[in-house]
């Protein structure tokens, strides 16, 4: 089976400018050489600490942030270098759900207009047809049809997130990047939204790139999980493998930090290094309890492990 | 507890700027209601002025009659007559329309020029921003009254030139105001969401960014109206306003300054009228700010809790 989305060597760097002449004095390497494959119908979870580049990666795939280098092959087409007109045509297949259920909805637009805007932008000019499809999709996300005539502020956080999901879904996309879709919600509402996302995946045969920092949430939602550290993927495996047999020392440290587990806690020393000047060799070596001399010299590739996972560590092979 | 006091707990709810609701909310606000009433009276003078005074500015009462100059108030001339024997009250009533036309004209021109420039400047950034902002810098580098004065001196007096001169001093403030708003609104997540849906840039500016950038403009407009009226009156005072014998308040003020000691009432009336207009628009502006931006309000005044 060929992947629906293949990311190859994706880099997104942000220039750092300083001085009166705004000269570029450095690059923040938010995403620095990421390879990923997402199969049709699967949910790939993406975890990592704040600032590791997970959200930037999701946005770079959608070209909401222009990637610096690399390929994003979606459905056989490299969207990273597509011109604006053809990119617009791809957008209906490639959608995003945002973290912030308040900020991501225009407070001055009716819910119906928010949900229907994608239809309008993609050539559905008939008012009647838009209304019909808006109603249909609102029902699918569990909102009453009367919601269309109301403003976002009249809804609760969970309901607003449903509006955001409806907006992404109304174009019947193939892939949805869910950027921390539940981390701004109350715990009691989180599970409802997660179950909705899971049900919609079945109903609309969706594929998710599920970005989150909550390991329990990612584990619950994902078929496979990718772990990011400082702009790179350090480990990819099935959700079960990551949970029960993490291979990369960073993944292990991350898992040991989940409360209520009976394993020994691994406390990492120091801070995440600056993405402005990442360490040589393996990026994790400055905090890795197992670091060797080779780690400083050679950058480990994301190689296949006998267990079927892929891991970027010299010591795990 | 009156309706006028907005409960600070309801702050996060986005305020609608739809005109009908805005007017109703302004009416409920104590100071902007006073502003609305004052402005309503002045607008009534503008519309009904010629009818109330029995004709055009060249009618009998407004026409000069040197035999009856500088008369004290009487049954025939309620506020007396000026140095040329013209009825002061008639001239004040007729003058309202010039002051309001100049003020509204200048502010409308300022918004019409400033709003698109500022919006494009903030939304597209790059060279558009650079060009517009340097233009604004140049205009703002001059003292604004001096600039209006110079422009009217070059173009010559008259209603249209006065409006252009005053508008020139107010449009840069609208450019700056709307640009700052647009710069912040364009970074909000719903703009990113629209981009992801493939919505065009122009439509994003029109449907998403502008509607969410208008509040400060709505608040600023009445205040700008006040400063436009003042600038216009200043130009009139200096003899650069509308041509004689048009009864514009600033011009009237300028003409009567020779009689400031012998007949101080003649300076007082037009001055008072100008003050009233400016008071009205400032009350309205303050009310609009309270109503549309409750965060500012709660910092200024904490409503007392009086529950029954």
Describe this structure as you would to a colleague.
The complex is a heterodimer of chains A (317) and B (308). Chain A has helices spanning 54-61, 84-91, 111-121, 127-140, 157-169, 187-203, 215-221, 239-244, 249-256, 293-297, and strands at residues 5-18, 23-38, 43-47, 69-74, 77-78, 94-97, 175-179, 207-211, 224-229, 232-238, 303-304, 310-311. In chain A, helix 3 (111-121) packs across helix 4. In chain A, a hairpin with a 2-residue loop joins strand 4 (69-74) and strand 5. Chain A is globular, with a radius of gyration of 21 Å. The model of chain A has no long low-confidence stretch (mean pLDDT 91). Chain A is 31% helix and 23% strand. Chain A is built from 10 helices and 12 strands. In chain A, strands 6-7-8-3-9-10-12-11 form an 8-stranded mixed beta sheet, sandwiched between helices. Chain A is an alpha/beta fold and 317 residues long. Chain B has 308 residues and is an all-alpha fold. Chain B has a single domain (24-300), classed as MetI-like (MetI-like fold). In chain B, 67% of the residues lie in helices and 0% in strands. Chain B contains 12 helices and no strands. Chain B has helices at 19-28, 30-52, 88-124, 126-141, 144-155, 159-185, 189-196, 201-209, 215-237, 249-255, 265-292, 294-300. The chains are: A alpha/beta (317), B mainly alpha (308).
